[in-house]
Amino acid sequence: MPDLSTGIGSEALASELMSDQLANSALLEVRTRLAHALQISLDAQELLSVFYKHSQQLVSYQGLTYESSELDKVVRIGQRSLHRCHYTLSLPDSDLGEITFYRKSRFTESQQLILETLLASLAFPLNNAKKYQQAMKMALIDPLTKVGNRSALSAALEREHQLLQRNGKAFALIMLDIDHFKGINDEYGHSRGDEVLIQVAATVEDVSRGTDMTFRYGGEEFALLLSATGAAGGLITAERLRRAVEKLHIRVADKTIQPTISLGVSSCVDAREELNLVLERADRALYDAKRQGRNRSCCEPAQIYLDNTAKV
């Protein structure tokens, strides 16, 4: 307790209060600027960069890491150091991930309090980024089978085409169709038909490589995009898929549905070929497989462009 009778204690108290007021004023000013700056983006990486820049005005630290399974994001800014403080970020109805701050010397209680106060301004922008990413993801996913939709396929094809242009890496495309699917719907009902679609999509995902991408092209037709793969590799994968689906036994009351698929393979080895032609060749191969009796794989050879003349 300060000695107010001498005046010395009151001067120290006044100085301390003045210091606290200045600190609170600085914190309020930085938090206000931070809250405004965090409204400019729905990208978690950019939001954390903004937070790092503004928080450095009050607390000097070497770096931070942020991890979120729901945002599928790991962000690292600056460098790790010996000392750290760690926080789990959440709102009442949302898990926002975990953030860790690193510093060469220990964080003081006042520094931790400042970071905690500033983190309160980060929570809602991060939650908005999470909702935005989820909405964007759902816009590219088929709601029934949970694989990519046709829009996602178009975007993935563009990326593979760009990789081919830059690095010369060929890619293959497999189009597959469930044989006699209308008959399955007619005999067993659309709900059982949906179950067939779900199980075929899951089988394609299970059998293909982790780098391959599965899409529902429309109706009972699916596509599989294979990175760094030529026609031969695509045909091998197609046959592996065909055999895996052939083994499916889907129980319906006292009956069993045993679906089969027909597959068409094309590959792109020349960046000058347009993507719609790659799709057309896979489609032609698919219909060849159907004309030849279904439950089989066919391949259309890649197009190579030399001297502006297309040659097979």
From TrEMBL:
Domain of life according to the entry: Bacteria
One example GO MF annotation: diguanylate cyclase activity
Keyword Cell division: no
Gene3D superfamilies: 3.30.70.270
Catalytic function, reaction form: 2 GTP = 3',3'-c-di-GMP + 2 diphosphate
PROSITE patterns: GGDEF (PS50887)
SMART domains xrefs: GGDEF
EC number(s) given by UniProt: 2.7.7.65
GGDEF domain boundaries: 169-302
Keywords: Nucleotidyltransferase, Transferase
Listed PANTHER family: DIGUANYLATE CYCLASE DGCM-RELATED, REGULATORY COMPONENTS OF SENSORY TRANSDUCTION SYSTEM
Protein's name in the database: diguanylate cyclase
Organism expressing this protein natively: Gilvimarinus gilvus
